[in-house]
Amino acid sequence: MPLDAALHTVELTRPVEGRAAEILTEDALGFVAELHRRFDARRRELLVQRLQRQKRFDAGDLPDFPIETADVRAGDWKIARVPSDLLDRRVEITGPVDRKMIINALNSGAKVFMADFEDATSPTWDNLIEGQVNLKDRWAGTLTYVDPASGKRYELGPRPAVLMVRPRGWALDEAHLKVDGQPVSAALFDFGLYLFHCARASIAAGSGPYFYLPKMESRHEARLWNDVFVFAQGALGLSPGIVKATVLIETLPAAFEMDEILFELREHVVGLNCGRWDYIFSYIKRLGAAPERLTPDRSRMVMGEAFLRAYCQLLIKTCHRRGAFAMGGMAAQIPVKGDADANAAAFAKVRADKEREAGWGHDGTWVAHPDLVPVAMEVFDRLMSGPNQLANGREDVTVTREDLLKVHQGPRTEAGLRENIRVGVQYLEAWLRGRGAVPLYNLMEDAATAEISRTQIWQWLRLKATLDDGRVVTPPLFETLFADELDQLRLRPELTRLEAAARLFRDMTLAETCAEFLTVEAYPQLS
Prior knowledge:
Elements: E1 10-12, H1 20-23, H2 26-58, H3 70-74, E2 91-95, H4 99-106, E3 112-116, H5 125-140, E4 144-146, E5 153-155, E6 162-166, E7 173-179, E8 182-185, H6 186-204, E9 210-213, H7 219-236, E10 244-249, H8 252-255, H9 258-264, E11 269-274, H10 276-287, H11 306-321, E12 325-331, H12 340-360, E13 364-367, H13 373-383, H14 401-405, H15 414-432, E14 438-440, E15 443-445, H16 447-462, H17 475-489, H18 498-510, H19 518-522
Parallel strand pairs: 2-3, 2-13, 3-6, 9-10, 10-11, 11-12, 12-13
Antiparallel strand pairs: 1-7, 4-5, 7-8, 14-15
């Protein structure tokens, strides 16, 4: 349905029905179209540069701190002022843009809620548009929900968390909106619609248009976001610098350019976040062809060791030097119903993780479930005397290139291989059914976990990894274990997309090259 008769057209491939008409207005789509026309060519060029860099990694090159930006790292500069409602971020909760979940998260007692259009949301058209409606309603003061089964009514409490929004990353397209015959960037779609509809209302409420930016790999990608912000503010008549963002450092290349990313976004950035699960995925994807980078079981890659410890401590030091917040990572544990001992063990793991983060100097942390907000809050209340730890410069920290590349040590086991199969296939199956946040084995999983699962199997196959029992991971061994796990999953009739998920997961793990993103490959199979 073209919106104009001009040579350049904006076309939706889905009908505009119900409340979608409030979101997909001609003016809103025109704004997204202008973002596309100004910035999409650069986005695509940057994605090509990622692939070119990957070829260099596959040939033996390793990431390093850029020589050409040494002056930025050495310079004495700070980011712009942080808004008052973002000065205390000690506990943040994240989740999909489902209406009930948004209300529960905003009422959870967390300081911040990150509404996630990315890894915690399966990007079906309905999920995306309903999410935009829900966020619009939050700022309109009309966000309520009545459970159709119980009749229970949900509404915002008197002190909801500060709202931040995570759009999808640069790598993804939104196929349902085409501009001049090309699908628009999913990142610009999510960002543009939210900013257009909610920026002024959020500012009027004493907050602002705040974002989390995922999966950047370089300062050039940060510069693109900065240019998008500057243009969007001008186009909508917003004050310069009113858009604020926290950047997830969840790719290996980005860890070598944290100063540079902050510098490029210095008028808009308020912090960096340790996206630990995607960071493991990125490490394997970018360096997985090198035998000396062979990873152990996923469960052995813990935050206090090797490359995870190094990059988190460097992030804290870098952020605090620049006046930016250094946010900790996700505690994926969820309450274990019906098993008091298992529930206590899960909460103890969260507590220990948050004590490590607060002790290192993080300014706050993430949790995945409202019941874990008070657990994390108690730790940061106890160990962080003020609203943040910006004054803790971590001058004791020195992190080298070798530290950032140091691989974790530990065994590779059949149990670890089977867990990767089970978790990866089940998550992908749920994603194909439209669910992005999936409880599996007492953890709230999102796309990052499935990415680790499939890339680690790919790496073990490619490098012919040896298990702790002496067997070599070969395609026949993988096929045997995969078939066995799939037979068990077939006993569960509720897994209606199991066969499609299994085919895709198998094909990606056995492929000659490691695909950039599972979600990109799976997206055409969504409704």
